[in-house]
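hiii, so i know i said id send this last week but things got crazy w the move. better late than never?? heres the sequnce for the chain we talked about at the cafe, plus the structure i predicted for it. fair warning i was half asleep when i ran it
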Amino acid sequence: MRILFPIIGAAVALASPALAADTPPKPTQEQLRSAEATLSYMVSAINSKDVPTEMKNGLFGCLYENSLRQISTARDEVLAKNKGKVDTANPTQQLVIIAQICGAPLPEPAAKGTAPKTDGR
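okay and structure toks below
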């Protein structure tokens, strides 16, 4: 057992510089707020009964395959390029941006002149 500790310690010491090199810089407070908002929009959509399953699956898959940092940074870039065109207080617009970044399928808009479906009552 005593032999094992030095070997493990040496392996950790060798791996630590490699892991540190791949570590991104510490995020700023603004980046953290943006990531928090991005995650909030995604989780709200995934938990919503009004969001289609295909879109939920796309958002979840995107979050699984990409870092929140990547998704949030891409959202920030879209918002910066479209300053004044996007209502940043509108969660639907924010969700559409995130869904497009993620490649998640968007719900089909209702056709104009189509009556909403009812149960006949």
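btw The chain has a mean pLDDT of 81. thought thatd interest u
miss u guys!!
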